[in-house]
Specification:
three-stranded mixed sheet, 4 helices, 3 strands, GMP Synthetase, Chain A, domain 3, 19% strand, alpha+beta
Length: 104
Protein backbone atom coordinates (compact mmCIF):
# COMPACT_ATOMS: atom_id res chain seq x y z
CA UNK A 1 0.00 0.00 0.00
CA UNK A 2 1.29 3.51 -0.81
CA UNK A 3 2.14 6.03 1.89
CA UNK A 4 -0.77 8.18 0.71
CA UNK A 5 -3.18 5.24 1.00
CA UNK A 6 -1.86 4.45 4.49
CA UNK A 7 -2.40 8.07 5.58
CA UNK A 8 -5.93 8.09 4.18
CA UNK A 9 -6.82 4.76 5.80
CA UNK A 10 -5.43 5.63 9.23
CA UNK A 11 -7.03 9.08 9.41
CA UNK A 12 -10.39 7.86 8.13
CA UNK A 13 -10.38 5.06 10.72
CA UNK A 14 -9.23 7.19 13.65
CA UNK A 15 -11.21 10.39 13.20
CA UNK A 16 -14.58 9.54 11.59
CA UNK A 17 -13.94 12.53 9.34
CA UNK A 18 -16.71 14.56 7.76
CA UNK A 19 -14.17 15.43 5.06
CA UNK A 20 -10.73 14.01 4.37
CA UNK A 21 -8.38 14.89 1.55
CA UNK A 22 -4.78 13.72 1.33
CA UNK A 23 -2.81 15.31 -1.48
CA UNK A 24 0.62 14.13 -2.57
CA UNK A 25 2.42 17.40 -3.32
CA UNK A 26 5.80 15.79 -3.93
CA UNK A 27 5.71 16.72 -7.61
CA UNK A 28 5.95 20.38 -6.55
CA UNK A 29 9.38 19.74 -5.05
CA UNK A 30 12.81 18.69 -6.24
CA UNK A 31 12.30 14.94 -5.80
CA UNK A 32 12.25 11.94 -8.10
CA UNK A 33 9.08 11.33 -10.13
CA UNK A 34 6.63 9.16 -8.21
CA UNK A 35 7.99 10.21 -4.81
CA UNK A 36 5.82 10.27 -1.72
CA UNK A 37 7.66 12.82 0.39
CA UNK A 38 5.39 15.89 0.72
CA UNK A 39 1.71 15.73 1.67
CA UNK A 40 -1.11 18.12 2.41
CA UNK A 41 -3.92 16.81 4.63
CA UNK A 42 -7.26 18.48 5.10
CA UNK A 43 -9.35 16.74 7.74
CA UNK A 44 -12.66 17.84 9.23
CA UNK A 45 -13.74 16.02 12.39
CA UNK A 46 -15.73 16.52 15.56
CA UNK A 47 -12.68 15.07 17.36
CA UNK A 48 -11.01 18.49 17.04
CA UNK A 49 -13.76 20.35 18.91
CA UNK A 50 -12.38 22.41 21.82
CA UNK A 51 -8.78 21.44 20.90
CA UNK A 52 -6.09 24.04 20.22
CA UNK A 53 -4.40 23.84 16.83
CA UNK A 54 -1.17 22.40 18.26
CA UNK A 55 -3.13 19.64 20.01
CA UNK A 56 -4.94 18.78 16.76
CA UNK A 57 -1.65 18.53 14.91
CA UNK A 58 -0.15 16.39 17.65
CA UNK A 59 -3.16 14.08 17.44
CA UNK A 60 -2.69 13.61 13.70
CA UNK A 61 1.10 13.28 13.99
CA UNK A 62 0.63 10.61 16.63
CA UNK A 63 -1.77 8.69 14.39
CA UNK A 64 0.74 8.92 11.53
CA UNK A 65 3.82 8.19 13.61
CA UNK A 66 5.06 5.45 11.27
CA UNK A 67 4.43 7.48 8.10
CA UNK A 68 6.15 10.54 9.58
CA UNK A 69 9.42 8.57 9.58
CA UNK A 70 9.14 8.11 5.81
CA UNK A 71 8.11 11.58 4.61
CA UNK A 72 9.75 14.98 4.51
CA UNK A 73 6.80 17.36 4.95
CA UNK A 74 3.19 17.25 6.10
CA UNK A 75 0.94 20.30 5.81
CA UNK A 76 -2.06 19.94 8.11
CA UNK A 77 -5.44 21.63 7.99
CA UNK A 78 -7.38 20.25 10.97
CA UNK A 79 -10.86 21.69 11.28
CA UNK A 80 -14.12 21.14 13.11
CA UNK A 81 -17.28 20.88 10.97
CA UNK A 82 -18.22 24.41 12.07
CA UNK A 83 -14.84 25.84 11.06
CA UNK A 84 -15.06 24.04 7.72
CA UNK A 85 -18.46 25.57 7.09
CA UNK A 86 -17.21 29.05 8.06
CA UNK A 87 -14.39 28.70 5.52
CA UNK A 88 -16.82 27.54 2.83
CA UNK A 89 -14.86 24.31 2.45
CA UNK A 90 -11.59 25.98 1.52
CA UNK A 91 -8.07 25.87 2.94
CA UNK A 92 -4.92 27.74 1.98
CA UNK A 93 -2.73 26.52 -0.84
CA UNK A 94 0.65 25.16 0.14
CA UNK A 95 3.54 27.58 -0.36
CA UNK A 96 5.75 27.21 -3.41
CA UNK A 97 8.88 25.13 -2.97
CA UNK A 98 11.84 27.38 -2.20
CA UNK A 99 14.63 24.84 -1.88
CA UNK A 100 16.48 22.10 -3.65
CA UNK A 101 16.83 23.89 -6.97
CA UNK A 102 13.27 23.25 -8.20
CA UNK A 103 12.56 26.95 -8.85
CA UNK A 104 16.05 27.85 -10.06
Amino acid sequence: MSIQANIEHKLASEYDADFLQVENESHLHNVAPGSESHFKVTIVSKAFKDQMLIKRHRMVNSTLQQEMQQIHALALHTLTPEEWQERAGKVADSPKCRGGGKNQ
